[in-house]
């Protein structure tokens, strides 16, 4: 549920934010998304290793970045 872009010294991951269970910490994929956010990891993250997976990210917000408008 995300897009990955490999940059020069980091990897950019656009993540779809979903509410999670307080018991299992698994996402409620059937519920409405809270939106998207972007995570930058120092170094290389192999995009193939992220396919078909859910990820959990913790950290501090460091700013805003305008993404693409998506309509369907």
From TrEMBL:
InterPro entries: OMP_Slp. This is Starvation-inducible outer membrane lipoprotein. One of its GO terms (cellular component) is outer membrane. The keyword Protein biosynthesis does not apply. Keywords: Lipoprotein. It holds the Pfam family Slp.
